Amino acid sequence: MKIAIGGDHVGQELKPTIVEYLKKLGHEVKDFGTDSTERTDYPKYGETVAKEVASGNFDLGILICGTGVGISISANKVRGIRAVVCSEPYSAKLSKEHNNTNILAFGSRVVGPELAKMIVKEWLDAEFEGGRHARRVGMISDIEDKNDR
Ligand code: RB5
């Protein structure tokens, strides 16, 4: 799969490990920064990766900041994005199966590298189940239409 990844300076403590892991799993990865631990602003990276995924340039996105919260909120402002912030694998898996999430976010201050890899693997391996879940995901898209986003 083609995966876009990004994060702020706090996320950068974990991002290189995740990039390496994704490559090891055989995915094509593009890192949209930041590339240092110098202070920066998470919304920039959330928006960039979200646009890459929403436009279809990439299949999925992964975002990392201190908690995963700010960067996932930012990504969710882009039409068509369903970003989930997760600190355990169960919600990551279900977020794909039921909510068809297209961006996974987590926090480098919340999860360690091994747990982060487990979360990533569960999320990537999971598949959207469709059916009744598709109707509900459609209802989420309707909210975007109704609110002109
Ligand atoms: C940066 O200090 C921190 O606020 C950011 O990484 C993230 O946790 C925001 O949600």
Features:
6 helices; Ribose 5-phosphate Isomerase B, Chain: A; 5-stranded parallel β-sheet; single chain; binds D-ribose; isomerase; 5 strands; RpiB_LacA_LacB; globular; Ribose 5-phosphate isomerase B; SPI_LacAB/RpiB; about 45% helix; alpha/beta; intramolecular oxidoreductase activity, interconverting aldoses and ketoses; about 150 residues
Task: Explain what this protein looks like in three dimensions.
With 149 residues, the protein is an alpha/beta fold. The model has no long low-confidence stretch (mean pLDDT 97). Helix 2 (42-54) crosses helix 3 (69-75) and helix 4 (89-99) packs parallel to helix 5. Helix 1 (15-24) links the parallel strand 1 and strand 2. It has one domain: Ribose 5-phosphate Isomerase B, Chain: A (3-Layer(aba) Sandwich). It has helices at residues 15-24, 42-54, 69-75, 89-99, 113-125, 132-146; strands spanning 2-7, 28-31, 60-65, 83-85, 103-107. It contains 6 helices and 5 strands; from the N terminus they run βαβαβαβαβαα. The longest helix has 15 residues, at 132-146. Helices cover 46% and strands 16% of the residues. It is globular, with a radius of gyration of 14 Å. Belongs to the LacAB/RpiB family.
Provide the CATH superfamily.
Answer: Sugar-phosphate isomerase, RpiB/LacA/LacB
Output the CATH class name. Alpha Beta
Please outline the major beta sheet: 5 strands, parallel
Q: Residue-averaged pLDDT, rounded?
A: 97
Termini Cα gap? 27 Å
Low-confidence stretches: none
Protein structure class: alpha/beta
Can you list the ligands bound to this structure? D-ribose
Q: Using the coordinates shown, work out and report the CATH topology.
A: Ribose 5-phosphate Isomerase B, Chain: A
**Helix amount:** 40-55%
Q: Encode the helix/strand succession as letters.
A: EHEHEHEHEHH
Q: How many beta-strand segments? A: 5
CATH architecture: 3-Layer(aba) Sandwich
The quaternary state of the protein chains shown equals single chain
